[in-house]
Amino acid sequence: MNYISNIDTICILVDTENYEQEAKDVIEYLEKEKQKSKLRCVDNSSYRHLININDMSFYLSNNGTKGYAYILHNSGFQINIAQFKSKLKNFLPIQIRISSEYLWSYGLSYSWSIIYNWVVETFGNIINEKVFRLDLCCHISDIDLVTDYEISYKGDFKNRQVFYGGNNIKAIAFGSRRCKNIYVRIYNKSLEIQEMKHKTWFYEIWENNSMNVDNVWNIEFEIKSEYLRKFNITTMKDVIEHLQDLWKYCTTKFIIKIDRTNNRVERCNTNENWLEIQKAYNNFNSVGLIERKKQIELDVNILVPSIVGNITSYSARKEQNNIDDAFSNLYNDTKRYLLRKNTSFEEEVNNKIAFLYDNKASK
Predict the structure, then answer these.
(1) What is the CA radius of gyration of the chain?
(2) For residue 104, which of 11, 74, 157, 344 sits 20 to 30 Å off, Cα-Cα?
(3) Which of 261, 290, 319 is the last residue of a domain?
(4) Confidence of residue 357 (pLDDT cuts 50, 70, 90)
């Protein structure tokens, strides 16, 4: 049995010293850029507004979310920013989500250092941080985790669900995503990638760990704030120190796969494969498993079908079925379009490169 473990998502609330004073110039800049974006979206609904703050590029959303007026996102992070500090004890003015792409590429510690240093540069010294969501996962191949799932699992969960793809089970879930404790999904990761044509770089990670890329399942624990506080886990340092404890709790208390050899659940032995899964974080080292550049290169093929679809639709309207002539026409139309938009192909590509590699991370 082969497996690979990692943190798949982490969300952190942050407060900084003298937030409203230190953030004033940034907030004014974000408000101005947000209004610009809204105006440009009137003429072009697909427009996305790219900005740069302290050598990191983000798309700025036209809308906010509860408590946060500004939403920035790039391939590594989503950052929600409040205009003002709240008097509510548990509300901190900056909310950060680190993406799975960065966690699998750079590891937890380095991913956090990138955004930590950016926050300090942008808003001042961090005086408080609270991790409020942590997703731990284990990819595993060639074992059966779903047959007779109704009677093969025991634990502290109250709800269970099953999801089908045709006649086959593609996922089972335990607990509730709405609660602030733990939600477990066990799902066919190979099938997900085949269907979504996304994150194809996982194939290289799996191959490097001698896994069957056509039959990889993911065991994922979405751990919310209530259970993190139960273990006195607040900061990123706490998370790093207690990853093994959290995984052990999740796989030995919250949910356990059993061999149903007795009518009484408590008398059934833990499944042999599950005993191995319980050890998945024993020697966990939070380092990158695939280079970010390689990750992007491997995912580029995702774009090909949509490009082909668009170019053939374009050519059909031009009544042009010769590929060389079609691309020649497209070249001329592209130049005219960019000229009208007061930009250039080089500028647009450089913006996309900055977004993909998020300058801070590439240094």
Answers:
(1) 24
(2) 157
(3) 290
(4) low
